[in-house]
Amino acid sequence: MEQVETRLRESVAETPTLKSPTSRSAELSSALGNLSLEPIRLAGSRDEQVKTVYKTYKANARYRDIFFLRTDISRFLREVDEAEQPISRIHALVEDARRHRGVTTELTDIPSVLQVRNRFLATVLILRCDYAILCDFITHHGKAATGENLHKFHLDLVLNRKDCENLVLESQSRQQPAQGVEGLLYWARFVALERGRSARLSDEDMDILVDRARNQLQSARHICNAYPGQTAGMPAEVYEAEKMLRDATFYAPVTNEEKAAVYAAMAQSFQGTGHWYYCVNGHPFTVGECGMPMETARCPQCGAVVGGTHHQPAAGVSQASDLEAEFGRPGR
């Protein structure tokens, strides 16, 4: 299983072979010429979504390895299904013979002897695989060199969340807390992926869904606290999923004019003097009074350290001279 997870991580992260500028330019021109302005719709089952990605990229090697990996996981998942286990086949033969002899009582002890751990692990692996494919596809497909998206996406991931709910319910009945946390994590991650790209939900409905995702992550955190030995390392994943939902509110499309209005209002609202700064990830903040940092805090957008001590900015913090030039020092 560890080898399969390693392949999953490497298959998406592989860097393509460098090509000459002329070759890259020709490929870009060809790609731009073939781009459709129609939004790409990702809906239906996860298999159908992956097929859409495959059809879009079938002439490109970017997803070749991860598609092969997904096929291997799917095959393994079928092989470890309870119906394919020897005890299940024997049970089916016995039941068939009993029916032919007119015996109506049923054997009820079969579930207690089935081995479900491998199926759980394979179910989680293919869930991770599908999320990695969708996330990478949405992030990178159709992006211009400027970083601007050339494609819009219409997502309907209701069946993805249903798959997660089924995993959570079965994990509860089988006393598998780690797999339950996985189901809750990916329920929330699919919501974060669909946010701002939903094909059917209004903004109000999406806000309700995001609140549900936060509750799912809270449930995941409770499970981690109750079963620390079986969920080692998973609280960090819960934190990252919470961060995804939180950060999404800061990356909604905002025009330059709207940003300027926000910054100008911030500059006017501060009293006294001060300076503008950027955290290590480029998010702006201000330091009031003398404008030199005397304490540290956390950036509300990314969690990086902001501020500083003894008039020295924290590591990675830089002065936002461009904001000061455009909007003036806070309070002036």
Characterize the structure shown.
By secondary structure, the protein is mainly alpha-helical. It contains 13 helices and eight strands. It has helices at 2-13, 21-34, 46-57, 64-79, 86-100, 110-113, 117-140, 158-173, 177-194, 203-226, 234-248, 256-269, 321-327, and strands at 40-42, 153-155, 275-278, 284-287, 296-298, 305-309, 312-313, 318-319. The strands form three sheets. It has a three-stranded antiparallel β-sheet with strand order 4-3-8, with helices on one face. Strands 5-6-7 form a three-stranded antiparallel β-sheet, with no helix packed on it. Helix 3 packs across helix 7 (117-140). The relative contact order is 0.07.
Total helical elements: 13
Note the overall shape: elongated
Name the structural class: mainly alpha
Poorly predicted residue ranges: 15-22, 24-36, 110-114, 249-255
Instruction: Please give the largest β-sheet.
Output: 3 strands, antiparallel
Order of helices and strands: HHEHHHHHEHHHHHEEEEEEH
Widest sheet: strand order?
4-3-8
Helical proportion, percent range = 55-70%
Mean pLDDT: 76
> What fraction of the residues are assigned to beta strands by DSSP?
5-15%
Map the helices and strands.
Blueprint (H helix, E strand, L loop, with lengths): L1 H12 L7 H14 L5 E3 L3 H12 L6 H16 L6 H15 L9 H4 L3 H24 L12 E3 L2 H16 L3 H18 L8 H24 L7 H15 L7 H14 L5 E4 L5 E4 L8 E3 L6 E5 L2 E2 L4 E2 L1 H7 L5
Helix pairs in contact: 1-4, 1-7, 3-7, 4-7, 7-9, 8-9, 9-10, 9-11, 10-11
